[in-house]
Amino acid sequence: MLLCSLCCKANKSAAQLNIPSSYALIKRVIPAAAQKFIVEPLPVNGQRDVFEVQGANGKIILRGNNGVAVASALYHYLTEYAHCQVTWNGSNLKLPAKLPMPVGKIRKSTPYQYRYYLNYCTYSYSMSWWDWKRWEKEIDWMALHGINMPLAITGQEYVWDKVYKSMGFSSQDMQSFFTGPAYFGWFYMGNIDAWDGPLPQSWITSHRDLQVKILQRERELGIKPVLPAFTGHVPASFKKHYPNAKLKQTNWNNGFADTYILDSEDPLFAQIGKKFIQEQTKVYGTDHLYSADTFNENEPPSNDPKFLSELSARVYDGMKGADPKAVWVMQGWLFFSDRKFWKNEQIKALLNAVPNDQMIVLDLNTDYEPIWKRTEAFYGKPWIWNMLHNYGGNNSLFGRIEAVASQPAQALADPASGKMVGIGLTMEAIEQTPVLYELMTQNTWQNKPINLDNWLPRYVFNRYGVKSKEAEEAWQILRATVFNGKDIRDGAESIITGRPTLDSAAVWTRTHLNYNRKDLLPAWDKMIAAVPQCKQSSGFNYDLVDVTRQVLANYGRPIQLKWIKAYRDKDDKAFVKYTNDYLSLIADMDKLLATQKDFMLGPWIADARAWGTNAAEKALYEKNARNLITLWGGADSPLHEYSCRQWSGLLNDFYKVRWQKFFELLQSSLETGKEPDFKQFEEAIKNWEWGWVNSSKAYPAVPVGSSTLIAQQLYEKYRANMGNDLK
Question: Could you count the other beta carbons within 10 Å of the beta carbon of residue 431?
């Protein structure tokens, strides 16, 4: 009952300003200066958030209609007047002793009712092992950046467990249903069952409690979380308990067993849908926003518009039966990923079955392909413009910076955009490329395109805390190269993280860049030149490592071409030299990345193991953590490298070892004159990878070495040769 009362109490005040919560946030963000800020309510008419910032008597007054507005007022002051910044990858919060006073009263209102955040995939690729301390920081980040509508699916397994056990399912049934924690994103979407489990009861209980804390904090700040709804995904044992149930057996086609979807025509569908939301509301409360994605990367059994319309209506009725105020928040990914099936007639049928004011569509990948433009703005449904970025959590400098700066405001002003009610971030993974997230959230409080010529130098100044001509010039080069957004959907991987090959790419190692390798080198030159001025900045150190990492990762291909040529020319001496150069490059990257926590394998594994209450649980979570970022599935997984990471520890112990084994194969071929058996090698390397996934080793969780010193050493070692090789 305590859990319910906490949530329900927070629910009632969700739309109002909770002044103590705002003061608490300020104290968490800038503890030493918190007493210099005053929070006041700002009554508004309508549904759009508003904030004001004003100086008076040496203090800064922050006004807002809710906690998000007040936090945004604080961040506006910190960025515009104190030249500070808060990101995942380094923050600058060095406030002057005497705070600068704004001239007059600054008032900002948002044109967007909703500012959406997260994706089911983010919960796996980045957030699998987060504890309350990490969540607390993220919720503050959300509020500071104006987010008011995050997906909130932590602890969903507790609700599933309660619902199905109340229907007579056993603990064994549920163990055969739940995946391990790293795979929840796809379990929730109905793609996989059971993989990398069984899920311990301790996890279910602890994450129920964690979700209660998350939701309470979000609601105190005026954030309205989106909770899940039932979409038909049921345990495989459902047919045993309900032999007459209408089930659809489906497969995600990525190397996993079939899953089972209860047909929406079956009366049980509405019953379970209602029971699910009722049980969820008891423990987590509700803001009447529900996420439900039918047929995520699974094709419906019929493209008949009547069938799709009836299906959609029944899914919504399942929500409405438990909550008459329910609003369905639908990820529009299916309209992008399976466009051959989802033609306009099918999309229209799916959407029009639900009243306009009771559905919001997320145009999930708008910066790359705006679905709203080919669907008459989703046929009258309210919809949200989103940036989908960073597939799989891969490390790659990439983004469509011009699109993010201009397209949200352009869409808002377009008469054809219909009911565009918000903007959002729907990336598969976070904790990288902070510039894009600072830029995207800048759109929240304006209805005009962002002028990058003005914004980017200010971003660099806020980030590094000093004005540096070299740093600004580096970022202009980055803007024109890695962030130009051309040619490719998402950032390219490096061949060094691919399963060893003589080719330029592998299955999920797509190496085509959106710029010429040599064109990025001047940005490296400028970042190295900026070291003396900027080296005290945590943001600069992160960026220096990231740019250096990208340059070195790109250099893997030119070195690969050298040892391939030596191998084909049967030049044993050159082959040994260039393969050693290649392995040294990987080792050098590993050493560089060990200087920044965000580029280390150790914290990922340590955070996973920390959730275990005994040795077996710790081992299970470590296996989950290792598996997702390497094979993704079993030894024969077709998704291997989809979530590859250029991380210290992983480079030396996984990628480098694979290449060493490959070079031994090629060296043997040179010595014997026999053609290498690549098929046999593929099988052997799969088994080695599976062994690595199932092994255990403690990796450093604390950075080692100086980012600036090692980056400078690598610059001296590689820069001249790169200039020659990339001409």
Answer: 18
The pLDDT score that the predictor gives to residue 1 is 39
* DSSP H or E stretch at residue 259: strand 259-262
Residue 84 · residue 39 · CB < 8 Å:
no
Residue 580 tokens read as: 């050693």
pLDDT number for residue 5:
42
Can you give 644-673 as a three-state secondary structure string? CCCCECHHHHHHHHHHHHHHHHHHHHHHHC
Structural tokens at position 451: 């002028």
Between 171 and 301, the more confident residue is 171
Residue 15's pLDDT is: 52
Backbone angles phi, psi at 382, to 5 degrees: -60, 140
371, amino acid identity: I
624's tokens: 């989950």
Contacts of 333 (CB under 8 A, 6+ apart): 293, 296, 297, 364, 365
Quick check: 512 pLDDT over 60?
Answer: yes
Tens digit of each residue's pLDDT (9 = 90 or more) over 601-625? 999 999 999 999 999 999 999 999 9
DSSP H or E segment with residue 719: helix 707-725
Residue with token string 């609003």: 327
Cα torsion 376, 349, 381, 71 to 10°: value is -120
Place of tokens 């352009």: 410
Residue 459 sits at φ, ψ, to 5 deg, of: -60, -45
Look-up: residue for tokens 């309510």? 41
Spatial separation of the C-alpha atoms in residues 439 and 441, rounded to whole Å: 6
The SS3 assignment for 395 reads: coil
Neighbours of 452 (CB within 10 A): 18
Q: What is the pLDDT of residues 534-559, one digit of tens each?
A: 999 999 999 999 999 999 999 999 99
> What separation in angstroms does the CA of 556 have from each of 116, 190, 511, 619, 621?
38, 38, 10, 34, 32
Segment 6-47, tens digit of pLDDT: 444 434 433 589 999 999 999 999 999 999 999 999 998 888
**How many angstroms separate the Cα of 628 from the Cα of each of 254, 319, 386, 426, 647?**
13, 32, 25, 20, 14
**179 contacts 195 by C-beta, under 8 angstroms:** yes
Tokens linked to 58: 């040496």
Q: Which of 556, 562, 600 has the alpha carbon at shortest distance from 578?
A: 562
Is residue 70 within 8 Å of residue 78, measured between CB atoms? Answer: no
Q: Are 29 and 139 in contact (CB under 8 A)?
A: no
Give dist(CA 228, CA 269) in Å, integer. Answer: 15
Residue 196, helix vs strand vs coil: coil
> Which residues touch 355 (CB under 8 Å, ≥6 apart)?
none
State in Å, rounded, how far the first CA of the chain is from the last one: 69
Sort strands 289-291 and 227-228 into parallel, antiparallel or unpaired.
parallel
Q: Could you please report the per-residue DSSP string of 449-489?
A: ---HHHHHHHHHHHHHSS--HHHHHHHHHHHHTTTB--S-S
Phi and psi of 355, rounded to 5°? -55, 145
Cis peptide before 198 (omega within 30 of 0): yes
Cα separations (Å) of 301 from 262, 263, 308? 13, 11, 10
Residue 596 near residue 542 (C-beta atoms within 8 A): yes
Core vs surface per residue 548-557: b (16+ CB within 10 A) or e? bbbbbbbbbb
CB 35 within 8 A of CB 153: no
Q: Which amino acid is at 31?
A: P
| 290/225 Cα distance (integer angstroms) | 9
Q: CA Rg, the chain, in Å? A: 26
| Interaxial angle between packed helices 434-442 and 452-464, expressed in degrees from 0 to 180 and rounded to the nearest 10 | 130
pLDDT given at position 4: 43
Domains of the chain are: 19-109 (3.30.379.10), 116-397+422-429 (3.20.20.80), 471-720 (1.20.120.670)
- Percent of the chain whose pLDDT exceeds 90: 91
Are 327 and 368 in contact by the 8 Å Cβ rule? The answer is no
